Amino acid sequence: MRILFFGDVMGKPGRVVLKRKLPELRERLGADMVIANGENASGGVGLTTDVLRELLGMGVDVVTTGNHIWKHREMYSGLEREQRVVRPANYPAGAPGRGMTVVELASGHRVAVLNLQGRTFMDDVDCPFHVADALLKTLPDDVCIRFIDFHAEATSEKKALGWYLDGRISALVGTHTHVQTADPMILPEGTGYLTDAGMCGVEASCLGMDKDVIVTRFLTKLPQRFILAKGDVTVNGVLVEVDPATGKAVHIELVRE
Known about the structure:
- By secondary structure, the chain is α/β, with parallel strands linked by helices.
- Helix content is 26%, strand content 26%.
- A 6-stranded mixed beta sheet has the order 5-6-7-8-10-9, covered by helices on one side. A 5-stranded mixed beta sheet has the order 4-3-1-13-14, with helices on one face.
- The longest helix is centred in the N-terminal third of the chain and has 19 residues, at 11-29.
- 47% of the residues are buried.
- Fe cation 1 binds at residues 8, 39-40, 178.
């Protein structure tokens, strides 16, 4: 079976291009399941319940998130209600929502989607390695297709978690940097790996934000009001093909349109 994953959806430009391209990509690539990171889908920072419904309505099966999921407090109750959205599992006990969900596809295959957040250069949340161990132990044997969105800053931390979980998950794909990396691979024990899927948003930008504003911020070190960029839009992601009998990845390729 084939899982199509899209990197951080950046505000309205990212939503518009994803909605426009998703039907054609899903058919052409033969995707059985679509996952997208939506932590920046509302205004470029955070996620609202309305935008969550929009993402699910356009054909995204599961929405993953990251550190910006806490931007809009209205989303806290949405995280509790909606089973198809996950937040990083390694936030301390008591955080709203869930860090893992299991969905059953039309084919009858059950897929576990886990969301984890890195600690290097980010908030000091619980250890993603230990939390991954604990969550994977709760899955029944018949849920052997297991996909992780690792929302992290450091490439070394993403690589390390990929090696640590090799053979126990179907794929680990990184998000958060908004820059698609050129290292899709299948690790020795059958885990598909990509350091970062990139973003869905305006290409001529700084991570989806207006480039002039960001350049001014670097030049002056003064606070600036971030503005979503305008211009030509791109979708970035990855396609992972998994053997449903074993949960092992058999093919992985970049998606960039």
